[in-house]
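Consider the following assembly input.
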Amino acid sequence: RQAKALGHGLMSAYNHALGRLGHRALEHDLRAAIATDQLYLVYQPKIDFDSGDLVGCEALLRWRHPSLGLVAPCDFIPVAEESGIIVQLGRWTLDEACRQIRRWLDAGEVAPSVAVNLSPRQFLHGDIVEGVRASLAAHGIPAGLLELELTETVAVRDIDRVIAIMHELKRLHVSLSIDDFGTGFSSLSYLMRLPVDQLKIDRSFISHLVTDQRAQALVKGVIDIGDGLGMRVIAEGVETPAQASLLSVLGCSVMQGYFFGRPMSPDQLEEALRVPAGK
Ligand code: C2E
Ligand code: CA
Ligand code: CA
Ligand code: CA
């Protein structure tokens, strides 16, 4: 809930409207949103703090509702997940992200890799492997430019199936990340079996990093685990220079957060590509 308070005054106003609207109406409006171009993606840079290079970005979904205005994902993703609309929503997002990569490639830009969030239901019931394959093919995208972010909660549901699907995705050569790592209580023995390339340390650890010894110990632990398992580690929600330099000292140099850039339009990200961070 806290994230909503940040930045968008619209969000709290929306919550009231959302309450009145109810789930059924929201479901209905969401279906219309997919059909009538109310959705769009914004892109948040991922930066290598040590070199200042932009190493990729994360695609984040936005919904401009015709009467309610901008709706935050935390207000509609859960409803979409519950009702199953997430499968169509996720397909749209994946396809739009690939379309954007294609635009960057066509513009002659060095296309950044784009990470797309997958919800558990979309992952387990959305024929995700075929969806990813189709979107890559439709836009002629090198699979190395697409990253998929999954929360560890997905692994708690049906670990053997999750692992099987992950291996199929790896066969397509896309890269896989565990999102919000450290918040899902999944067992470390699961992690050992998951063919993932990257761990994203959850923002909740980063926000306490500078003042809380225990957060520091946990973050250091995650970095060591990632190193030991050959996984890249990235910190999300980095808001201050103090957090960034401490992370770098602890051995994590890839970061994402308001300190480096808010989620932005493709044009703005292109600008960031031309002018490396910190230069
Ligand atoms: P997430 O995947 O953990 O995404 C990061 C969220 O943290 C984003 O919020 C981002 O704007 C925000 N954030 C980034 N840097 C900072 C920072 O320095 N400080 C703070 N306080 N916040 C920061 P957003 O865009 O509202 O998305 C919220 C969540 O909604 C995402 O969390 C993800 O779980 C979900 N979501 C967003 N887009 C999609 C999507 O296309 N598909 C699915 N399934 N879920 C999505
Ligand atoms: Ca994410
Ligand atoms: Ca995250
Ligand atoms: Ca998070």
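The two ends are 35 Å apart (CA to CA). Ask yourself how this observation constrains the way the partners meet.
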